[in-house]
């Protein structure tokens, strides 16, 4: 295993001079000794297998939830974090190495799959880290299992917000219907390629762009279409969870959505960050910066 040390802030401040330098070296050594590569496991939900990776021990864990037509490998840049902490990385049903039955892929199904993995791994409470579609999955999990959520990290994800008026509601319904039709058409991969390409910026590494496109386009068509339907069908968030700390790390876009204010109304929003030098897959494009933000949140939440 390639050993990668991710310095936490308090360890850095100890590395100054004299005996404190020796202490810093010892801290690095201990980190290497306790870090572990993920081990593959299989849980079951409704008779279908769910693949996941597990590191560490304990009843509380970080749970990494990937986005639409992605898989657990999209978190590989976070290895310095999850190899040093109790963590679970899930392939949601229909994705990655999990079973791909031709069923309805709703946010409720995905949330129940997270719970099935946690139960199998003997984890009773989790900090849910959701990228893109993983964010509504995390919130749906919170709705179903509120006592099992320690915190949520939203990674360029969105949640259903109430429309401003009837015209906006009709527009949203029309867009959802058009997307559903395109994803079920014979030429769906052309549409899907266009959608995925909008998630990058000009500075995105070409090799990373190719890797992401290849993996996402490999998803079965029925999974693509049904999971998109599932996101669009999720009910608007009206509940309030002031006890749940939330961190949001977002790609900066030109249009102001008021998403930060929406989150403040429903959660204990610890921080809301927008990055203007990355695309949608910010944890892959800027892994070191993202890991630093994640660890800081985990240490103070």
Structural features:
301 residues; disordered N terminus; alpha/beta; single chain
Beta strand %? 15-25%
Please tell me the total number of domains. Answer: 2
Envelope shape: globular
Order of helices and strands: HHEEEHEHEHEHHHHEHEHH
The rounded Rg comes to: 20 Å
- The level of helicity is 40-55%
Number of strands: 8
Largest sheet: 8 strands, mixed
- Architecture per CATH nomenclature, i.e. the level-2 architecture of the largest domain: 3-Layer(aba) Sandwich
Mean pLDDT: 89
Q: Which residues form runs of ≥5 with pLDDT under 50? A: 1-33
The CATH superfamily title of the largest domain? Alpha/Beta hydrolase fold, catalytic domain
Query: Span between N and C termini?
Result: 30 Å
Structure annotation, total helices: 12
Which structural class should the secondary elements be placed in? alpha/beta
CATH topology of the largest domain: Rossmann fold
CATH class of the largest domain: Alpha Beta
Neighbour order of strands in the largest sheet: 1-2-4-3-5-6-7-8
């Amino acid at each position: 295993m390639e050993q990668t040390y991710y310095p936490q802030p308090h360890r850095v401040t100890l590395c100054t001079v004299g005996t404190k330098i020796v202490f810093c070296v010892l801290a690095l050594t201990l980190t290497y000794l306790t870090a572990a590569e993920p081990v593959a496991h299989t849980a079951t939900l409704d008779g279908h297998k769910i693949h996941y990776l597990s590191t560490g021990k304990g009843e509380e864990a970080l749970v990494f939830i990937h986005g639409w037509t992605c898989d657990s490998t999209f978190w590989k840049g976070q290895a310095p974090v999850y190899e040093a902490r109790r963590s679970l990385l899930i392939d949601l049903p229909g994705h990655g190495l999990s079973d791909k039955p031709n069923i309805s892929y709703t946010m409720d199904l995905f949330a129940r799959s997270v719970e099935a993995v946690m139960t199998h791994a003997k984890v009773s409470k989790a900090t849910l880290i959701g990228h893109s579609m993983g964010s509504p999955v995390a919130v749906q999990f919170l709705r179903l299992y509120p006592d099992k959520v320690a915190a949520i990290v939203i990674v360029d994800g969105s949640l259903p917000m109430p429309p401003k008026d009837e015209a906006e509601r009709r527009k949203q319904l029309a867009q959802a219907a058009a997307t559903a039709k395109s994803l079920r058409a014979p030429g769906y991969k052309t549409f899907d390629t266009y959608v995925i390409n909008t998630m990058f910026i000009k500075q995105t590494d070409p090799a990373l762009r190719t890797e992401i496109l290849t993996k996402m386009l490999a998803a079965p068509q029925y999974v693509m279409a049904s999971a998109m339907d599932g996101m669009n069908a999720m009910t608007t968030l009206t509940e309030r969870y002031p006890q749940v700390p939330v961190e949001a790390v977002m790609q900066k876009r030109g249009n102001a959505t008021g998403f930060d204010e929406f989150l403040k109304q429903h959660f204990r929003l610890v921080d809301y960050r927008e990055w203007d030098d990355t695309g949608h897959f910010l944890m892959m494009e800027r892994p070191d910066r993202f890991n630093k933000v994640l660890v800081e949140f985990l240490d103070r939440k």
